[in-house]
Amino acid sequence: xxKLRTDAPLFLLGALGYPFVEILWRGxxxxxxxLAGGISAVVLFRLNRSLASGxxxxxxxxxxxAITLIELIFGVIFNLGxxxxxxxxxxxxxxxxxQICLPYALLWCLLSLPxxxxxxxxxxxxxxR
Length: 129
Description:
Blueprint: H1 2-26, H2 31-50, H3 56-81, E1 95-96, E2 100-101, H4 102-111, H5 113-119
Antiparallel strand pairs: 1-2
Helix pairs in contact: 1-2, 2-3, 3-4
């Protein structure tokens, strides 16, 4: 029940935020992006909690990689598998199957900054008595 209390608001934040970013970037979105956004938010929260003691560049790279992997999974399922043609990065440099590409993976690293800063918590210091 405790995970649900944490995950539900995070999922909702991602489900609203991810499509919003996409609308700002390309002018439209697709309902599947809300699902990808919700999953991404929960994954990023847990990832940044587990890497809280790590340096920020590591957390940004890990966050960008996680979002990119989620996009690859969604692309393979919805674009390649179901033929929904939600996006196609075939004409973008360094693409993989037209579903992900290096420029957007790097952009996700940068866009993860606010999330990384908000979600990471420092491990409690241990006092020696």
